[in-house]
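REQUEST FORM: STRUCTURE PREDICTION
Request ID: SP-0412
Submitted by: Lab K.M.
Chain count: 1
Length (residues): 310
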Amino acid sequence: MEHEVNKSPVLMVEDLSVSFNMYQKGLRKNDLEVLHKLSLSVHAGEILAVAGSSGSGKSVLAHAVMGILPGNAGTEGRMFYNGQPFGEKEKRRLRGREIAFIPQSVEYLDPLMRVGKQVMGMRGTKERQKELFRKYRLAEDVERKYPFELSGGMARRVLIAAALMENVRLVVADEPTPGLDQRMAREALHDLREMADRGCAVLLITHDIDLAFREADRIAVFYAGTVVETAPAEDFLAGKDALRHPYSRAFLDALPQNEFRPVPGFQPYAGNLPKGCLFADRCQKKSALCEGEIPMRRVRGGEVRCIHAE
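STATUS: Completed
RESULT:
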């Protein structure tokens, strides 16, 4: 599915690294790097879906973009929003106004505030709130409830409604569909698609990868805290031979419809990342060249972090 995409990125992330200062055995402090020189961009009018195994750092990226990392986090690299430096001050000013967040955890709902007030936010309207409640099958009396009175699926729908309340320029959706039935999950992603078609930029982190393949414009594949490939969604639908990175192909093979075919080995531990290619120990094409710096490069209309890709 092709959509018109603005060439200027709304969000650009360059060489982002995020580490957490943690105590190890013997009360020794150690920096655990969970994102490693990560780069990506999201344009007006597109959905960039982020895929990868659990523990690859996808949610950390969402929190870094929103400026809600915990106090023990350290960051390196640069971010830009509409071409301007995007620091912590700018994130505080823009989130909830121009930038909407759909968090993975329903605990982001304020336990002391009624649901209707949270969904309306600062500039929403009652009419829009009622429209979204009808769309997501939330009864009228839900607006008077507190979050503890909601089921997990209801709370998830409330979070989505709150993010869709206003016309924002960027949506960061971190696993928006767990707990939703298949129909509701499809509707939620279709709503994000409609927002993108109106000019919004959408960064979608999801495990509902089959839905993402059909609604997203591009897919960014995460592995061990970095992006190893970014490619048009059509390439993933076409099959693994259209992809460029060995991990992207292995990731596609491991999907249920492909009989969960695994690749031997494990994702490297964030506290002991190898030099060079992070996938090298599991790759059949491994060579001495894989031990050096592996930059992202353009290959067949996509971007890939692999010297053997062609």
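NOTES: The two ends are 24 Å apart (CA to CA).
Reviewed by: T.R.
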